[in-house]
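[Meeting: bench + compute handoff]

Bench side (C.D.) handed over the final construct sequence. Compute side (W.E.) agreed to return the predicted structure before the next meeting so the bench team could plan truncations. Sequence as handed over:
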Amino acid sequence: MTGRFITFEGGEGAGKSTQARLLAQALQARGLELVVTREPGGTPGAEAIRALLLDTKGTDWNLPAEALLFAAARADHVAQLIRPAIDRGVWVICDRFIDSSRAYQGGEEALPDATIMALHSAGSAGFMPDLTLLIELSPAEAARRLTLRDGDASDRIGGRDSAFHSKVARRFGEIADAEPQRIARIDGEGDPATVHSRILAVVTARLGLSA
């Protein structure tokens, strides 16, 4: 039996990591074998690239270099962890994937979506999730959560200004509007248990699980 691939997307402070963990627990309780991973990262090589990308004291990568690094990390992640797990029948839940590259490095006078998808095609053979859960928050709530989580210690990308993060949110929305069959938009307002209930209902309905 082939596994399934679920990704979580959204801006900073959306609660993706928490919701990925809660979903994994819920699916494991139904007897499914799970791997929870993240991007960039998930393998030793990809984690090394993550450190380069997020280091606030490191290189200030321009957009093409940043996109190439993300694509390289993803290529290793897909080849070494994600595809082998799915081929074994394991369900994989990933905190961020290709749509984050499309939203963060693409859109609004940044890199064209076609360029980012071409890198994904070359590096990861265009491999896409079965289901993407886009957690959406108001800017005010996202800022509040980030302050609670990070204080003044944001990473190189998370620490960019509010205009950048507003652009990212708009771009995520555009991608979701264009691909509703794959991407489910989740209201991220409320406590983690409430958001988890919304997510579990979507996963159950879209991937044919018993309630």
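W.E. noted at the follow-up: The longest strand covers residues 131-136. C.D. will use this when planning the next construct.
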